[in-house]
Amino acid sequence: MYSEKVMDHFMNPRNVGEIENADGVGEVGNAKCGDIMKIYLKIENDIIKDAKFKTFGCGAAVATSSMATELVIGKTIDEALKITNKAVAEALDGLPPVKMHCSNLAEEGIKAAIEDYLKKTGRLSKECESEVCGRRCDDLHHHLDEEDDD
Amino acid sequence: MDNRIIYLDHAATTPVKPEVLEEMLPYFTNKFGNASSIYSIGRESKKAIEEARERVAKASGAMPREIFFTGSGSEADNWAIKGVAYANKAKGNHIITTAIEHHAVLHTCQYLESDGFEVTYLPVDENGLVSPEQVRKAIKPSTTLITIMFANNEIGTIQPIAEIGKIAKEHNIYFHTDAVQAVGNIPINVNELNVDLLSLSAHKFYGPKGVGALYIRKGVKITNFLHGGAQERGRRASTENVAGIVGLGKAIELATNNIEQYNKKLIELRDRTIEEITKKVPFVKLNGDRYKRLPGNVNFSFQFIEGESLLLMLDMKGIAASSGSACTSGSLDPSHVLLAIGLDHETAHGSLRITFGEENTHEDVDYLMEVLPAIVQRLREMSPLYEKVKRGN
């Protein structure tokens, strides 16, 4: 069901862990949906120097978290904000249709961590402006039915 | 690297026993006759089917003429529930069942609701048990059918079927039980249990897939489900799956002859596994009743981790098991059974079901216990939920 690359990133996930005094931390998902991703970023001069994650979730959730951290390291925050869930899935040689929603988690996790960084550096108001906050299960999973028909 | 596969998912399906396959094989080739044909190879097929029917009857305390072969356990459940509901519609439209039934029963009941029937889904306690008193209280003048599973496929809990059967009989209500997980694991006598209809499936007790049976007590008012030819005494159309039926007959005979010894072995493996997981892994919860459970069933929730991840890692170590997490069910919600026994979503997502069978040994449990605690720990180290708990300590 999973590509070799997904299995590799699941069995040997890159960048698992936490960063002490991280410049940006984002947590998305919730336990009810069965997946939570927490992402830590070390950022210097708007360039992501390091990224770590912790994920509660299925194989696809772990693999996309791992891949997302690999993709953002070395990028500027503007570049990182442009990484889409599709790009994460493609970098993993694809995900099964029912698992595509797991890749949203990675995209949102990175966005949330960068937003946290922007807030900390005073470039974003304390109120959350993106759709990432207050998200519910169905938001994350809302494409599932259509994907099932594939 | 060890290449052996340790199969711990016997509630999903079982391998066909060599003795069973051997009896089936001729019916694919030289004994291929249609059982409805009057010439000798047709009659031979007919005879083989009737012998299988006798074996099923003997294993369940029924009369051979009360056994009807079907294409699966799901078909037997569909037939029993829709058949009795529609045949007795003039008398009433109320059905009683439980919240933890197999989908073959739940979705059939939901279908009937969409067609004007009323269904009561009885809640279960934290161990997955329904009480006979609950059933009695749910009965209305319009109740025509009670359908309650014998043993649960996920958590293994065994229901008080005989007591419920007695209540059904007192109230003159038909009683169906989905015994797909029970047959071959628990000795069954339809008369002692006061069961009017009982579903079973061959591949759960070392028979082939694609064949099941429905016991229908003589006199039960039930409509046909499959219309067509006059097979199964005009009750179930379809050219008989002769090899499958022969396999079912042989498998049920072997299973019932050997049931005590088989149970003893499975209970040993089960109890040892429950004990060791409880001892060696922190933050776990046994799901289902500790004692009123299927001999081979172990079901645990591991806090802070997700079931599919656990299954994938076990699979990499050659262990095949199952989970009630949403990711493995193909839906957004975790198992309805785990939610019905009161688990929160998070705990339900982290469930693992191990079901032992014939070929499992203590060495398999040794190996499981060698790899499982480390896998759970590894996933927890990766989990943001565990992080919070560690910090709290």
Describe this protein with a few key phrases.
heterodimer, A: 150 residues, alpha+beta, Sufe protein. Chain: A, three-stranded antiparallel sheet, 7 helices, globular, disordered C terminus, B: 393 residues, alpha/beta, seven-stranded mixed sheet, 15 helices, 13% strand
Provide a concise account of the structure shown:
The complex is a heterodimer of chains A (150) and B (393). With 150 residues, chain A is an alpha+beta fold. Chain A has helices spanning 4-11, 59-72, 77-81, 85-91, 100-120, 137-141, 144-148; strands at 24-30, 35-44, 47-56.
Descriptive account of the structure:
The complex is a heterodimer of chains A (150) and B (393). By secondary structure, chain A is α+β, with helices and mostly antiparallel strands. In chain A, 43% of the residues lie in helices and 18% in strands. Chain A is built from seven helices and three strands. In chain A, a hairpin with a 2-residue loop joins strand 2 (35-44) and strand 3 (47-56). Mean pLDDT of chain A is 85; it is low at 131-150. In chain B, the strands form three sheets. Chain B has a seven-stranded mixed sheet, sandwiched between helices. A three-stranded antiparallel sheet of chain B has the order 9-10-12. A two-stranded parallel ribbon of chain B has the order 1-11. Chain B has 393 residues and is of the alpha/beta class. The longest helix of chain B has 22 residues, at 259-280. In chain B, strand 5, helix 6 and strand 6 form a beta-alpha-beta unit. The A-B interface holds A 2, 7, 10-11, 13, 16, 18, 27, 31-38, 54-62, 98-99, 137-138, 141, 144, 148 and B 304-306, 308-309, 312-313, 316, 325-327, 330, 332, 334, 344-346, 349, 381-385, 387.
